[in-house]
Amino acid sequence: MPAVSGDLFGAPASIRIERLFLGLMLPPDAAAGASKVLDDARADHRLKGSAVRPDRMHVTLIHVGDYAGSLPQGVVADIRATADGLSEAAFDVAFDRADSFAGAPGRHPYVLLGGEGVEALRAFRDRLFRALLRAGVRTLSREAFNPHVTLAYGDQRLPGGAIDPVGWRPADFGLIHSEVGRSVYHPLARWPLRD
């Protein structure tokens, strides 16, 4: 059964929350560049907090839902069928700024953001979002999309600023099952982007 934000707080502690999202994982070179941005913030601003592991760095395209206990296989099947019907060209992505989002006290997401370098990513995500809507797949995401890569959950909000661009050409996008609070990801499916 899908969980909306209020349901997460009402779920018994023994029930795991399972998250389903479509995303782009950063390849090793891009993840290394993103990690350097975080290292610089730690050195320059004494940023503390929990870092996202490089092999977990990603762009969430669509947050499908959070589910108590198990994933609804019908939703997974509908997403697979929709994505199987897409044929998308590859594109370049470049994040050229770092900034902090507001968050819970002591847990401010420190993120990569972009301008022109993420426009092709925005367009791709828009087509994917609309395809899911046409297929009747309900998600927790909205039409508005602010592409970002979370690097850490910092103890303070840092001023935004330009960085050496962190970019790559995604080879694919994937459907990922995340065990919330455990930093465990299970890739369920991947779809290549045409070169």
**Helical stretch tally:** 4
Topology, number of strands:
10
| Strand order, largest beta sheet | 1-4-2-9-10
Radius of gyration, in Å, reads 17 Å
Mean pLDDT: 92
User: Major sheet: size, sense and barrel closure?
Assistant: 5 strands, antiparallel
Q: Strand percentage, roughly?
A: 35-45%
- Report the end-to-end length measured between terminal Cα atoms: 38 Å
**Helical proportion?**
25-40%
Look at the helices and sheets and give the structural class.
alpha+beta
Low-confidence stretches are 1-9
The coarse overall form would be: globular
Structural summary, described in words:
This protein is an alpha+beta fold. Helices cover 27% and strands 36% of the residues. It contains 4 helices and 10 strands. Strands 1-4-2-9-10 form a 5-stranded antiparallel beta sheet. The protein is globular, with a radius of gyration of 17 Å. The N and C termini lie far apart (38 Å).
Using brief descriptors, characterize the structure shown.
single chain; 195 residues; alpha+beta; five-stranded antiparallel beta sheet; 4 helices; 27% helix; globular
Please provide a brief summary of the model:
By secondary structure, the chain is α+β, with helices and mostly antiparallel strands. The protein contains 4 helices and 10 strands.
List the helices and strands and how they pair.
Blueprint (H helix, E strand, L loop, with lengths): L1 E2 L1 H6 L6 E9 L2 H18 L3 E3 L6 E11 L4 H12 L8 E8 L7 E6 L5 H16 L14 E6 L6 E8 L3 E8 L4 E9 L3
Antiparallel strand pairs: 1-4, 2-4, 2-9, 3-7, 5-6, 5-8, 6-7, 9-10
